[in-house]
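Field reference: sequence -> structure
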Amino acid sequence: MFQRILSDIALMSAIGVVLAAIMVIAQRWLSNYGEVNLNINGKRDLTVKGGNSLLATLSDNQIFIPSACGGRGSCGACKCKVIEGGGPLLPTEKPLLSKAEQAGSIRLGCQVKVKSDIKIELPEAIFNIRRFHSVIEEIIDYTYDIKGITFKLQQGETIDFKAGQYVQLETEPYEKVKQKVMRAYSISSKPQINDRIQLIIRLVPEGICSTWVHKYLKVGDKVNFTGPYGDFYLRDTDADILFVAGGSGKAPIKSMLEHLREIGTNRKMTYFFGARTTKDLYLTDEFRAFEDVFEQFEYVPVLSHTLPEENWNGKTGFVMPYFKDAIRDPKNTEAYLCGSPGMINAVTKSLIEYGLSEDKIYYDSFG
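Structure field:
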């Protein structure tokens, strides 16, 4: 009896091994799409290997479309028009596409798999995005969880960007992270310096890229990034400006103000910096110094969770109630917001209630 049980177990194990082998072979066969044609804007054809996402396929061919989340399908930044060959719209795409976008054949590049010949449309500006090679020149600890990293481009390379735009940083494998990943970070330095950039990066718990930056990156390390990306940049008008950002969201605002210091401006500007406690404040003296540079600039830190021992005498709570004192003409005011989707939504709602036009509220969401 016991011998028969062992015999049955051996037989079942053998069957399991055979089925697993069949599945592996089938998967390899089904995933082998061979070479396919990728047509871009009706005038550029690429012969590419099928089976990868459209986002990755384009990247392999030195065409870089935005992807703030690194291709995880959570940011919705990698939108492009797929005319033919993209397959059906996936459930993972629908929450990030409006009905008009869905009707207009807009897809998420990270979710579309290149299985057969495919035709797409991309903005011409995409072809100006490049991959840059750099060396870490400086690392500054701004707070307990925020660092400023300076990337010096390799000799002869320069980058042209608008204040407020971002790049996508490429990590190296480390510990259990076996593959490179890409994450988006706003440039915090001014465009007038084009042979290096600074990024301000906050440590996100279990964040693949931010952990690599905070715990493994060293001065002298070689790092690649792509860019510049984004339409979050300062508009060339005479309108008053409200900046609203906290944490590492200070990065693009720093770039904008440093740029304005170079070119000069008489615009009325107020920057509300939201933080929890005084230990989350950084670059305070530098931003206070802008008040001496610009005739109509005010830097307003607002703390939401002050501690008695901090002896904080500044503003507290949420930033929104303080907007009314900074807005003198809602119809002639622009707002530049940088932060989480929740923060962006709350601030946008408040600004509209104060009379700002929604089309003059520009934002860079960390989502």
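Note: The chain has eight helices and 17 strands.
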